[in-house]
Amino acid sequence: MDTKPSTHYHPLPNKLINRASRALNRVGLARIDLSENALIAAARRETGLQDFGDESFLPALRVLLHSLQTEAQLNPMGRLYAKANIVGSLKNRLWAQAAFAAHPEIRQRKIVAPIVIIGPHRSGTTRLQRMMSADSQLMHLSTWEGFNPAPRPGKPQHGKAERWNEAKKACGAIPRMYPGAFNAHPMHPDWAEEEMLLLNHSFCSFSILGAYHVPSYYQWFLQADKTDAYRYTADLMRLIAWQRGEPEDKPWVLKNPQHMMDLNTLLQVFPDARLVFTHRDPQKTVASVMSLMWHYTVQHTDAPCRAKVREIWLDFCQQAARRCMTMREQIPAAQQIDVYYEQINHDWRAVMRRIYEFGGIQFDPQAQQALEGWLQASESENLHGGHKYALENFGTSKDEVEQRMKFVRDFYAIPFESRRA
Predict the structure, then answer these.
(1) Helix, strand or coil for residue 316?
(2) How confident is the model at residue 421 (pLDDT cuts 50, 70, 90)?
(3) All residues at 6 or more sequence positions from 106 whose CB lies less than 8 Å from its CB, including other chains
(4) Which H helix or E strand runs over 24?
């Protein structure tokens, strides 16, 4: 297994950030305070608002901050990243509360029978959601709205231009500062993205596990009751749809691998959800997700972190699969279907026809043309084909992954995937 220090993999912009920050720190400048009080004060100062309304996010934030300070071994860039993301989420909660207080009818909006794509990371969930997002019959979360879901008081069109430009800047930095991650999961402010971005604003999202080595936060994450975070995510979806002027009966297409861990909570909040479960060879999904998460974590620390990423994500994959299998037994068969990665590759139209029929949505020629147009553009630009990964890079092997994940392969009859896939 590669045990080089993380600095070996830092691109030049990140190295310059770390050097400059350390130089300033040596003379007592530019210190990054990751204390709860400092971060909350910064959000209140930058928005001019005080009221968070629901403060159910605080326990998760406190666990995260403790883990960041005691376990993550953050370099200056990692501290900057953590501060920017935490303050950004706190600001959005303040702005959202201002909107909810001014327009209490927002929280009364209905969310009707969303189609929720659920499966292991790297099992085709992004491709399915982004393809379906091309269909105007469905609502989806855009990346810029996930980063900045709340309207800015006093700004034209709820501050849309400002919020979009902030997301554009963030997405534009990813190829330079996280090049491997961008190859694995490219992002654009206008593209469909998973509601992980909304869960981030409750500090209750798997993306935290992919950004830092935070084992105590992970243990909390496994046991935490995430009901409040899911309910707040639903409120942010209502807020986004309200800003757009969307009809309440227009269905969402959602997706998030985290739902494998929390199906019961998902269905408490979205009881009429239509669940689409994706399956792919575990040897591929495990290797790919470890690689993706390492490409983020490695930029936020100077310490070797491949073994740490392997420890968390191999466990995550195994626990998510077991929990999902167990919880699915309690869900009516009519509320769930299964699709396979290889089926999508072989005949995506047949798969989509099944999903649309299951979701009660017309797969008419217009919808088919929209989906086909997205797929052709994606393939021509090779947007989802540049990610290279190997289990051996993380000190594991196909035999170990097979031993730990065989239960899910056997249960769902998941085929071994060819080497070229």
Answers:
(1) helix
(2) very low
(3) 99, 100, 235, 238, 239, 242
(4) helix 12-26
Q: How far apart are CA 203 and CA 226, in angstroms?
A: 10
Q: What values do phi and psi take at 371, rounded to 5?
A: -65, -40
**Contact between residue 263 and residue 269 where contact means Cβ atoms under 8 Å apart:** no
Measure the N-to-C terminal CA separation of the chain; round to a whole number of Å: 24
The Cα–Cα gap between 327 and 262 comes to 9
User: Can you give the pTM of this predicted structure?
Assistant: 0.96
Q: What is the pLDDT of residue 386?
A: 64
Residue 58 token pair: 């605080």
Average pLDDT over every residue of 138-149? 98
pLDDT digits (tens, 9 = 90+) for 153-170: 998 999 999 999 999 999
DSSP, res 258? G
Output 13-20 pairs: Cβ under 8 A, ≥24 positions apart: 13/176, 13/177, 14/77, 14/177, 14/299, 17/76, 17/77, 17/80, 18/75, 18/76, 18/77, 18/302
Q: With residue 184 as reference, give the H or E element that holds it.
A: helix 179-184
Q: Assign residue 141 a region: left if phi > 0, alpha if psi is -120 to 50, beta otherwise?
A: beta
Residue found under tokens 């800015």? 152
* C-alpha 347 chain-centroid distance: 27
Q: Is the pLDDT of residue 379 over 90?
A: no
The predicted pLDDT at position 380 comes to 79
Q: What angle do CA 44, 169, 148 make, to 5 degrees?
A: 45
- Per-residue pLDDT of 274-325, as tens digits, reads 999 999 999 999 999 999 999 999 999 999 999 999 999 999 999 999 999 9
Residue 277, strand partner residues: 118, 338
SS3 118: strand
Task: Write down the mean pLDDT value for the chain.
Answer: 95
By the 10 Å C-beta count (0-12 exposed, 13-18 middle, 19+ buried), 48 is classed as: exposed
